[in-house]
Structure formats: structure tokens, C-alpha cells
Amino acid sequence: MQKKFNFKLGADPEFTFVMQDRRIHCNHLLGKMLSGKPGFVRKSNDSDNAFMVGDAGEIGCDGHDSTGELRPRPVETPEGMVNNLRTIFEKSYEHLKLFDMMTLSTYASIGGHIHFEMNGTDEENKNSVNSIHKKLSSFALPIIMSENKISLRLRQKNGYGSLDDFRYDKKIQSDRKTHKATYEFRTPSAEWLITPKICEATFAYLGVVYNEIINNPENFKKFNNIILKNNDHARALMAFAVSDYSIITKAIFGEIKKAVRTFSMYNDYKQQCEYILNPGKVMKDKKAAEYNIVVGWGLRKKSDKVKLESLLDNKAINEKLKNIDMDGFCGLINIMINNDINIKDFADELNKTSIANNWQLKNSYYLFGLRKGVEHAIVCNSEGKLLAGEENVKTTLDNRAMEGLIARTIEKVRNSFPEAKVLDPSTGEIINNKKIFCIGLTYDTRIARDYGALIKMIYELENETFDAHPEVDLKQLVDDTGATTEAKLGDFYRLINNGERKFHVEVSAELSDSDGARIIREIEEEGSLT
After folding, report:
1. pLDDT tens per residue, range 70-114
2. Cα(first)–Cα(last) distance of the chain, in Å?
3. In 261-313, which residue ranges form alpha helices assigned H by DSSP?
4. How far is CA 21 from CA 296, 424, 447, in A?
């Protein structure tokens, strides 16, 4: 059992619900998914759809409808904080399996504010809070050094996460007579939420420092060289922290290590403190969890994996949908479509199938129709690689038509998907989103409304079991670039170009330039030889 601090620890960290690399509107989502569910009590007169989760705390919004916020019940140990958050996560996730819970500021500025109870009088607290903050923020360097640098810069660009960011708050208690004061440390991001280990270690480390500040203030005179003197000093330290282990950063970090190891409660939380004092290891663990609470806390179980049989069981799906208000989920799944016949029906079916089965899609999709007569479906990724449909290509012009179709499709996708750029968790760099797939459905499939064919393709793409077809073998193609009649053209080329052919002909040397120009013009206008 962990030794208790003689003050309580609290927090109100933020996060974003994400699906297919898109931020989902939190306020609307929580209202839809948690209202009326056993174990969730909606706070009265709360426009932010905040729900009490037993005695573990609350899940709701932070005043911004799109961003979620957690308010775990204050506790006296880091372990208690982990237990309260685990309860909130596990109970909430039962109703939110379609979504990831992200802690990066690439979707919105995400803060991980941590609260420390202050037990003095109001006057004493007000007089001491500035000094307390200077000391605590002086020891924040190890935490900042483990944060994603791109996310950190985005937060700072929006005016959050500086070392001089703190708040003193005094709230009246339920007895309406007493007040409880808290010091809110607002510098950290919400990345400490990613795993239970990081969460526990962060509260242990900061708790050890805060305990030393309020109970052994004289000890800090020995470390006066690392205590922040003013806001300029704070800004300089933050700049060093973002600079990835500069010589000055290493020197300050070494002094922080020496100081923390002398603090009175260090030995009680030695393991947790040493973990935080190894920011490279912490950052590695964050990347391994993809900055995702769902992954880091192991919320997604193997038993949650959806089987293809369930996705194709229309009777069971329709039964499940009777208990779901589908009007509230219109457009939830990120599917782009064109206006070809019945394509919208396929998108609607995918939407229903996903929601009814809690089938979380990690990829985004663009669905479009192929012209009547094209025999095989086409699948390509956002980089333009053809994964299926090479059977349509039998001639040189067929191949040109396929390349042109893919190029036009990819251009449309990149212009239409706002999340075409994402953060790669493994490197921390912004990259092109490779998780967008374009699927061309044949006319016969669309007329027959063969939804199962699409569901099966997407299931395999999601599970990375899709049997990508070999690339087109250019050596095996029939050369129809010199075709002089429509019958000699490749079928795919002819169908894609809708019967309006531009034949590649050799004009006889015996014809005058004007005759040659006339023949080519007539071919272009009529689509056949005169």
C-alpha cells in the first residue's frame, strides 16, 4: 500500500474522441451514448453532458463542446488516482467502443491540469501560491522532455502549456460553510493519461516535489540555482526543453535529479520518480501506446474483435438497430461517395453495420461507381497504388485509363479529406494519411445491392488481410496505341472514356497537312473514321 500524502491530488485532464483520424463532437457523443445507461448519472442543469461514474469521478466536456474532460475524485495517493481513472475509462468504454481517446494536441489543444490541495487559510494560500508554483514548475523539465514535441509546440502556439501557467481556486464545499483551496498546475499536457504507469508516476513525482515544497521549504535553498526567478526564466527553460536535450537542458536536468533524490518522500516513490527521470523511456512507452488511452489502458479486449459473420448477419444487425437512434449517428463513419447509382446505399449500409456491431474502422473510405461493363472492382490506396482491379487492364491504353482514373480519384480524395495529414505516433512527425482507401464498385454489384461484397473488402482492409493483387505486367499488355477502329481498343479504355474515342492514327505521308488535320478533327468529333 502506498504511503499517503498529507494533501489530496486532483486533476481535470482533457482528451479528444477520435474515429478514422477525425475528432468527434464530444458533447453530442456523450449525450447520445451515456444518457440513461446504468452507472451513469447526468449532472442536473449541465449543458456539457457531464456524467458521474459511481464515486470514481466524472466524464464530460471542458466547456468546449468538442473536447472531453475527466474529473477523477481527489485522492491522497497516485494509486488511488489510477484506480479512479480506470473505473471511469472501463465503464465509459463499454458504450464507446467505436472511438479512440487521444491525448495529442493535433486535434485540439489538450491540457493535463493537476490539482494540489492547499490547507492554509485563504490569505496564507494566496501569499504562498506564487512561490509554490515557481518551485514546482522548476521541476517540470523531466515531464516536458517526454512530451511529443509537435503536440507541445501546437499547444504553446495556442497559448497553453507555458511554465508560468497556474491557477489558485477556492471552492465552497457541500456543507455551504467551508471552503477548499487548490493550486492548479496547468503546464503538463494530457499525455500522462496514456498509460496507468505514466499516470501513477507523474502524480508520484509531482506529489513528492509538492510535499517537499510545503513541508520542507528550507531544503530548496540548497537548489536555488535551478528555481525559476521570473517569467523570462520560465520561457527560457521551456525553450531549452523543446530543443531536444541541449547542453544547458542536460545540465539543469542533472541538477533536478540530484535534488529530487534528497526529498523526504523520494524513497516512498523511488520507482515512479526514477521512471519520470528517464524521459526517453516514458516517450517510448507513449509511442508504443500510440498516444491513445484505449491502447495504453488495455480497454480494447481481444473479445471485442468483430467477426465477419456478425457483419454479414443482416437479421442480427436489424435487431440491434432497434435499440439505437440511428438519426443521431448520420455521417459518423468517414465515408466519401460520388453520385453514382446506389453508392449512397452502400455507404449507409456500412454506417449501420459499423454502429450495430461496435466495429471500429481505423481507415477512411471513398466509394465510387464504375461504368457499366467494367467487370472487376477497383481498390487503391491514397498513394495511388492499385490493390485490386488489375484484371481490367489488358492493353496499353487500358493501363493509361487506369492510371488516369486513379490519379483523378486520389486528387479528389486529397482535396476532400481534411485529415489527409496525420501525426505518426512512432516517429512524432506529420505525414500523409495512408489510411484512406478508394473503392470502385461495379455496376452489377451496385444494381444487385451486394452489400456483403463491400463489407468483406473493408473487413479485410481493416484487418490488413486484404489480398493485394499483383501489379499490372506491362510486358503482357496488348499495344493498342495505334488502333484505327474502336473494336481494336481495350475494353476498359473504351468504357472509361464513355465511347468517345480519340484514336491514335498515323496520317499518311501522301496526305496534305490540311487533310491530316481534317481527319484527326473528324475522329475527335465523331469518335470514328470518316
Report:
1. 999 999 999 999 999 999 999 999 999 999 999 988 777 889 999
2. 94
3. 270-276, 279-288, 293-296, 308-311
4. 17, 11, 32
Q: E strands within 327-444?
A: 335-337, 364-369, 378-381, 386-388, 421-424, 429-432, 436-441
72: exposed, middle or buried (Cβ count in 10 Å: 0-12, 13-18, 19+):
buried
Q: What gap in Å lies between CA 127 and CA 130, rounded to an integer? A: 7
CA distance 393 to 410: 19
Per-residue DSSP letter, 428 = T
Q: What is the pLDDT of residues 119-175, one digit of tens each?
A: 888 888 888 999 999 999 999 999 999 999 888 888 888 778 888 889 998 875 544
Q: What is the predicted pLDDT for the residue at 520? A: 43
Q: What is the dihedral of CA 175, 176, 180, 181, to 10 degrees?
A: 170
- The sign of the dihedral angle between the CA atoms of 405, 410, 413, 415 is negative
Strand order in the sheet with 386-388: 335-337, 364-369, 436-441, 378-381, 386-388
Rounded to the nearest 10 degrees, the angle between the axes of helix 247-260 and helix 196-215 is 70
Would you give the distance in Å from CA 232 to the centre of its chain? 34
